[in-house]
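Work Package 4 report. The design task specified in the project plan requires that, given a folded chain encoded as structure tokens, an amino acid be chosen for each position. We show below one input record used in the internal validation round.
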């Protein structure tokens, strides 16, 4: 079967000469393969398109995608928004008493699938012109777990609650104080316990609009779990949380299945997805064009298949290369390089919080990962180095360095498209060929150039901000949580891009990152923050990855083993045999012995 998708953000039918129609060999032969009859946009008729690809090449705005897919998928279409738009094949099958994890590249339909399971989108089976009614939908899914699911949904017997992806938008739709919000939704009388477990007592009397991203995330999760529903859907529950909070949230979500609830969760932090899920469904396809959902696999097998890029039961390679992990830190060569910045002891106090920085030195070419719980002063430290906050006392030598900073929360206030934003911010660099090959292409920014900045999704905005940060000329790059809202492929690509730019620019970077797997990919060395979140924080000079991970995970009381097949890190159950053994030998993350795998 053939699918043709038109990217309406890029298509500019008033500015071009309708090349897609003019050059189409089928149109020239008299067919109505591409028409402009009922819309200003072209309509590409899939079943008479020959798939020659000429329109793809001729379109000046690269707005057309044509893909050839196996014929048998034709009977699996679960949803299509409109003519020549994204097509979703199959759906995840929710199961009571099981956490189903969804994994896949951004733009392959995970949110759409969650919206369908939440009852907000009625699946149209590809027939957007005269959508089927419930009886037809139920007949379509006959024999699968989705049949009883949609039967109950059609009867309005199914109560579904949904934690949305972008928690930062919650204060715009919900007003008031945390405690009042939680009181309203506490249908199971669990809110108080959840507030204790997720450590929200201190924010109960605060208004939603003053909460940090991590606090909003935990309030949103509490509000969803406290509701009495049959289906619980979580879209990226770990964004803005530290690893300790991620594991707590994972436990809270897992407890739902003890009560035979049905839980479906989209998550990009591999270690957390692994810890959280029983089953995994893989989304693959071409982002923005089509998404296919795999059959459910056990969590270990599912994540390994995803990393491998090959689905054995469908004989389908969906990524040309596999994603691999190293069991030991990779040696880096920055150590011989010159010191770029040296800072001595520094202190900074706010009302109720104090930060103690115990000096350090940073070399050219070095990427320093910053690890630590939320509220411990990481952002404050980064802002001091960026010159955005004055320390109370300082001993920074060589303070004339130039700094480029990507903050944790990105709020676009730019009117115009992404190209204009780049031109205005980094002008000359934007046109440089190295910037195109080392930043624009790897981060997929060229596809966003014509999009208005205020319409970008969280992940798109994140990549744009990283691109802008790396495009500025600086000695020191500071990136606060660059992986938020990115999928696994993008996280690894961002890690590679940061490393490459730091190396070629002979600069240095600090990267605050809670995804342990991503942090391991990005950093050459680590700075670990300790103390009492919200009260006091301390940080010591950068140390190597192995010691840094060990110090950090020791303070978090978490150990990781390695998956024998993929080498990826997996969280050990607290007090399991491996957890105890690894703690005894002091290896919390990197493992050399085979028996520990
Ligand atoms: P993911 O959650 O995996 O990132 P989404 O389900 O959000 O993917 O989006 C998949 C594709 O569907 C995207 O290309 C998006 O632009 C498209 N899409 C989402 N909602 C709509 C809509 N209402 N109309 C047309 N296209 C849509
Ligand atoms: P992290 O980045 O590790 O989450 P932050 O550096 O953002 O931590 O914050 C550390 C502590 O300092 C928090 O308790 C926060 O509330 C407090 N804090 C940060 N900035 C200010 C400020 N401008 N005024 C008062 N308190 C602040």
């Amino acid at each position: 079967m053939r699918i043709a998708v038109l990217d309406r953000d890029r298509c500019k039918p008033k500015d071009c000469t309708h090349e897609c129609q003019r050059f189409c060999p089928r149109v020239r032969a008299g067919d109505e393969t591409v028409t402009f009859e009922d819309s200003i946009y072209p309509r590409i008729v899939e079943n008479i398109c020959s798939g020659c690809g000429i329109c793809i090449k001729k379109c000046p705005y690269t707005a057309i995608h044509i893909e050839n897919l196996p014929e048998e998928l034709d009977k699996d279409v679960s949803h299509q928004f409109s003519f020549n738009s994204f097509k979703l094949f199959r759906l995840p099958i929710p199961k009571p008493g099981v956490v189903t994890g969804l994994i896949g590249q951004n733009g392959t339909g995970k949110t759409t699938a969650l919206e369908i399971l939440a009852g907000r989108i009625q699946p149209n089976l590809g027939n957007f012109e005269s959508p089927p009614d419930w009886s037809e939908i139920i007949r379509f899914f006959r024999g699968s777990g989705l049949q009883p699911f949609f039967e109950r949904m059609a009867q309005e017997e199914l109560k579904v609650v949904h934690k949305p992806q972008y928690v930062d938008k919650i204060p715009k739709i919900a007003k008031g104080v945390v405690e009042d919000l939680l009181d309203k939704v506490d249908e199971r009388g669990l809110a108080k316990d959840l507030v204790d477990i997720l450590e929200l007592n201190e924010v109960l009397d605060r208004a939603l609009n003053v909460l940090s991203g991590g606090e909003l995330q935990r309030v949103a999760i509490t509000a969803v779990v406290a509701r009495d529903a049959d289906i619980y859907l979580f879209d990226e529950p770990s964004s803005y949380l530290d690893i300790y909070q991620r594991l707590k949230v994972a436990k809270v979500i897992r407890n739902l299945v003890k009560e035979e609830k049905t839980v479906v969760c989209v998550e990009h932090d591999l270690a957390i997805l692994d810890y959280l899920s029983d089953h995994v469904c893989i989304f693959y396809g071409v982002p923005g064009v089509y998404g296919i959902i795999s059959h459910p696999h056990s969590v270990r097998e599912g994540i390994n298949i995803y990393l491998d890029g090959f689905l054995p039961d469908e004989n389908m390679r969906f990524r040309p290369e596999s994603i691999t992990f190293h069991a030991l830190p990779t040696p880096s060569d920055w150590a011989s390089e010159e010191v770029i910045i040296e800072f001595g002891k520094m202190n900074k106090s706010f009302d109720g919080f104090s930060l103690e920085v115990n000096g350090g030195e940073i070399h050219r070419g070095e990427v320093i990962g910053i690890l630590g719980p939320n509220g411990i002063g990481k952002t404050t430290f980064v802002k001091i180095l960026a010159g955005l906050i004055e320390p109370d006392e300082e001993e920074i030598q060589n303070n004339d360095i130039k700094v480029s900073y990507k903050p944790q929360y990105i709020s676009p206030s730019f009117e115009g498209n992404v190209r204009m934003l780049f031109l205005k911010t980094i002008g000359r660099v934007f046109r440089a060929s190295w910037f195109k090959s080392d930043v624009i292409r790897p981060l997929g920014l060229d596809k966003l150039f014509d999009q208005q900045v205020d319409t970008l999704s969280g992940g798109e905005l994140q990549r744009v901000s990283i691109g802008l940060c790396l495009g500025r000329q600086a000695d020191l790059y500071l990136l606060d949580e660059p992986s938020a809202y990115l999928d696994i492929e993008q996280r690894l690509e961002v890690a590679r891009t940061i490393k490459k730019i730091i190396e070629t620019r002979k600069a240095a970077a600090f990267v605050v990152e809670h995804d342990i797997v991503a942090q391991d990919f990005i950093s050459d060395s680590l700075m670990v923050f300790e103390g009492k979140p919200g009260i006091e924080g301390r940080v010591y000079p950068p140390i190597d990855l192995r010691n840094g991970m060990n110090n950090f995970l020791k303070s978090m009381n978490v150990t990781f083993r390695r998956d024998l097949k993929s080498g990826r890190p997996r969280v050990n159950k607290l007090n399991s045999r491996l957890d105890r053994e690894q703690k005894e030998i002091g290896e919390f993350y990197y493992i050399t012995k085979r028996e520990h795998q």
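The chain has four domains: 2-68, 74-78+85-309, 339-543, 557-597. Validation will be extended to a larger panel in the next phase.
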